[in-house]
Amino acid sequence: MVIFSSYTYSTLKMLYFIGLGLADESDITVKGLEIVRRASRVYLEAYTSILLVDSQKLESYYGRAVIPADREMVESRGEEILSNAESEDVAFLVVGDPFGYFAPSLTPVSFGQRLLTEEQDSATTHTDLFLRARALSIPTTTIHNASILSAIGGATGLQLYNFGQVVSMPFFTSSWRPSSFYDRIKENRSLGLHTLVLLDIKVKEQSLENLIKGRKIWEPPRYMSVRECVEQMLEVEEEKRDGILDEESTMAVGVARVGGATQKVVSGRLRDLRGVDLDGPLQSLVLVGRRRHEIEKEVLRDCAVDPEGFERIWEEGRE
Fold this sequence. Notes:
alpha/beta; five-stranded parallel β-sheet; five-stranded mixed β-sheet; 13 helices
């Protein structure tokens, strides 16, 4: 891997993958903002995750136009993004961090606050764009930023080295109910580790009928809530009956809009979280493992749905 100096950033033309962080227009790094303001073209990857503000606010803050890059453009017309990138700066903006490891799930995504396709890596689409650029001898570099993985510890008080595999929860349908997440949760819990569960979002997606018929009619956006996630997890537990998840004794933490001004964090049993409304997107869930520290307890007690029962459930579930 080539490491570029700060001098190179200002002299060598290239394709930049720039992380935007988790919340709003001001989360971009200083280095990232400098590149955006001087780039010939700026694309916003607009389907694997979302910021908590619209693109107009980004354009106002950046002082320049931003080109939405939907799934079709990135996956089928990536040459438009790569065009002339060897002779002019092109910025490709990604919510969260542009690259990273994620658990399997539904849609190839950025390292923001959402998921991936079953059996795919987190930035599959972005990695493919990177590889296409490399095949064309287009220089690239990445400007990293905060992701849900780096922020979840600070938001919940849970210690990052006690987290296991990250998993994702897709929206179930009448004919599709994937349960690969369950086995990963089982592995994490056997080791006493916390599990971060990323919740599905659907932005600019077609129904199966419209997809088959080639009609570019988009479904309304959908964002999974913690409540929906818990319901689906317990449905799979009912089918598997391995005793991994119990609504009366499994402790969890629900988070919403991490890093934003309206961030919310609640802790309690799965049964408690089934009744909690964290308002709008984006939301995530953490299943608390047996490896528990007193400092973690102090933080989570303050956001417990049932403060009186919190102490007992915490102690009963620890190693």
